[in-house]
Design a protein that fits this description.
Bound molecules: adenosine monophosphate, zinc ion
Shape: elongated
Number of helices: 15
Low-confidence stretches: none
Oligomer: single chain
Helix content: 40-55%
Distance between the termini: 38 Å
Strand order of the largest sheet: 5-4-3-11-12
Radius of gyration: 26 Å
CATH class of the largest domain: Alpha Beta
Number of strands: 16
Length: 448
């Protein structure tokens, strides 16, 4: 039985799918800069969610969006446009920037062993559908026009504050004047932005007789409407999405289609590095490449992420990453031992592991069970299917000839012919196979 924490109710609930196929939507990346390791936290935990659903025999239809249309740097509708900012920085067009970083994300997703989404939805492919959604919201009386764009009137939606338990009066009292003076309520947000004459905004589409572009939140409610249909089973994102982005997605879906958006909402918390938030000014925006340069693979990092829980801030240190790397190496050694023993035991301990994960994705507890249980090769295969850690792929069975070499070396060692034994050991090492000697025998493991 799968249990998940639902942000909408603030409770752990038993998961029940709405239909035959579990519909899942994940808010994806804005493709404007090299992602830092924090950006992979959410995708790792949602990859675990998808794998867990599959392990529980659910059919899953999963959409991930790529925000390739710029949205503004702040959660409000002000500030710089992220893609325009990227284009300026790199001397490229916004389209080239988006194309480049989509490539970076997709190759890193593969390196992180994430199951590919069934539908990868680029925001710019849904502009016509966005306009139709704004038409509907307007026809239903939820919008008003300012000199800046079409705004959503949040006072028209009685339960606007419910999802995020927002304090609207406090928000109103703290609202800034100036740019947003035309806004009726502090929580109102743009569903469509106008581009004024002389304004340098490369991504633009005609709507209502003038150039403009969609407000940030709109792409997600539109893509869900077009590709999945509401309500979906599970909507995922980061905790930072709760008060604005997801609240506004819910509002748009209610205003345009009169529907609930999602039944379960799941949010993962942020990771800090050495106790600090990740930021350029602190110089700690490590990318996967930076980790590789320090000798850590994407799988080591995924191992680190999964050895904690998706809820609650987690603190990243290189020492803890080293520990995760060693833990993964020890698991691979155990797989190697299974090969060596030609273990065909079918006494499985996998159910206990799945049970832990079924308890609101408690991968930390599942990992402790892996550490402390006798496991068969079949178990390890399932562990790989559940966590996507390339444990078996990175620990292939050794060929008969390697077994022979190990046996020869073992014989040389027993005869105290150390020159020969060292020679074979070095030969094996060249093939990436290291030996660990004990009094009675030596075990091999993959040394990469
Ligand atoms: P950004 O491109 O910086 O706006 O980040 C995109 C998304 O990545 C955010 O909305 C968060 O959900 C997630 N994210 C950013 N930083 C972190 C972090 N330190 N830990 C976990 N998730 C993060
Ligand atoms: Zn979204």
């Amino acid at each position: 039985m799968l249990k998940l924490y639902n942000t909408a109710t603030r409770k752990i609930e038993t998961f029940k799918p709405l239909g035959d196929v579990v519909k899942v939507y994940t808010c994806g990346p804005t493709v404007y800069a090299t992602p830092h390791i924090g950006n992979y936290a959410a995708y790792t935990y949602w990859d675990l969610l998808i794998r867990t659903l599959k392990m529980n025999d659910y059919k899953v239809l999963r959409v991930l969006n790529l925000t390739d249309v710029g949205h503004l740097v702040s959660d409000g509708d002000e500030g710089e446009d992220k893609l325009e900012k990227g284009a300026l920085r790199e001397g490229k067009t916004v389209w080239e920037v988006a194309e480049h970083y989509i490539g970076v994300y997709l190759s890193n997703y593969a390196a992180m062993e994430f199951l590919p989404a069934d539908i990868l939805a680029r925001a710019t492919d849904y502009i016509e559908a966005d306009k139709k959604a704004v038409d509907l919201m307007t026809a239903n009386g939820f919008t008003y026009e300012t000199s800046d764009g079409i705004y959503f009137d949040t006072s028209k939606m009685p339960h606007y504050a419910d999802f995020a338990r927002l304090d609207l009066e406090g928000l109103q009292a703290g609202a800034r004047v100036g740019f947003s003076a035309e806004k009726r309520n502090a929580s109102d947000f743009a569903v469509w932005k106008f581009i004024h004459e002389g304004e340098n905004h490369a991504m633009r589409w005609d709507y209502l007789g003038r150039p403009g572009y969609p407000g940030w939140h709109l792409e997600c409610s539109t893509i869900i409407h077009e590709e999945l249909g509401e309500p979906i089973d599970i909507h995922t994102g980061g905790v930072d999405h709760i008060p604005v982005h997801h609240t506004n997605e819910i509002a748009e879906t209610y205003a345009a289609y009169g529907k609930e958006l999602a039944r379960f909402w799941m949010h993962c918390d942020f990771i800090t590095i050495d106790g600090q938030k990740i930021s350029k000014s602190l110089g700690n925006t490590y990318s996967l490449e930076d980790l590789a340069n320090r000798g850590f693979s994407p799988m080591d990092y995924k191992m680190w992420l999964l050895s904690g829980h998706y809820q609650g801030t987690r603190n990243f240190t290189f020492d803890s990453l080293e520990a995760a790397k060693n833990r993964r190496a020890s698991w691979r050694e155990r797989i190697a031992e299974c090969y060596q023993k030609k273990n065909t035991d079918d006494n499985s301990n996998f159910d206990k592991i799945l049970e832990a994960v079924n308890n609101n994705l408690n991968s930390a507890e599942a990992f402790a069970i892996v550490d402390n249980s006798e496991l068969t090769l079949a178990d390890w295969g399932k562990i790989d299917a559940l966590f996507g850690l390339r444990l078996i792929a990175d620990t292939p069975d050794v060929s008969e000839s390697v077994y022979q070499q190990i046996a020869e070396r073992e014989a040389a060692r027993r005869k105290k012919d150390f020159a020969k034994s060292d020679e074979i050991r070095d030969l094996l090492l060249k093939q990436g196979i290291a030996l660990k000697d004990s009094k009675d025998n030596s075990t091999w493991y993959y040394n990469n």
